[in-house]
Amino acid sequence: MKNIVVFVFLALSFTFVEGQTREKVWRINLLNPGIELEVPTGNFSTFSSELGIGYFGAYPELTFGGNGFVYIIAPFIDLQQKWFYNINKRVEKSKTIDHNSGNFISARIISKGNSIAENINRTSDFDFAVGPTWGIQRKYGENFHLLFDLGPQFYFDTKGNSGFYPIMFQINLGFDL
To answer: Backbone phi, then psi, for 100, in 5-degree steps?
Structure first.
């Protein structure tokens, strides 16, 4: 399973062609430490892939035991196709579109692997979450990056357990390289 995830990450990261409006950007994200590559897939779209180690809460159908403040610290891979819809409006208002700044809708899949630390038990060492999101992405100053998105997600593990969560959110703060 791990080999499949790595193959998908590499294949998708390098198969897209350059767009005219979007640009290729490497990032280091700080909140859930990771390295991200965002590549253009068209004039108003990008594909981002990130590898890192992050903090996660628990999915009810995929965890058991534990009490109080629940946490999982585990490696993750996050893949997201973004379609930007306000680029022309940002240009008309003299706002930056550098480093793919804009509002977007997306399709996202995230997977986490074996836990480094946790205070609950998981039904499987690997789980996945997929769903649509709406978000904003901005560049501030020379290279500071902000991303916020939210949307519903369907989650599942390698043993067939699954569930639905109506609102998932992501916030990334980091630096464009």
So the answer is: 65, 40
In a domain, 69, yes or no: no
d(CA 105, CA 45): 10
Closest C-alpha to 48, from 91, 83, 94: 83
Number of domains in the chain: 1
* 131 inside domain: yes
The Cα 68–Cα 119 span in angstroms is: 9
Residue tagged 């306000």 (tokens): 86
DSSP letter, residue 17: P
Which of 90-99's residues contact partners 24+ apart within 8 Å by CB, and which partners? 96/139, 97/21, 98/23, 98/139, 99/23, 99/25, 99/139, 99/143, 99/145, 99/176
Q: Which residue has the tokens 């901005």?
A: 138
pTM: 0.84
Distance CA 157, CA 153 (A): 13
Residue whose C-alpha is closest to residue 157's, from 72, 81, 52:
72
Q: Which domain holds residue 147?
A: 2-53+75-112+123-176
Q: What is the pLDDT of residues 159-176, one digit of tens each?
A: 999 999 999 999 999 999
In a domain, 146, yes or no: yes
Residue type, 56: F
Q: Is 155 part of any domain?
A: yes
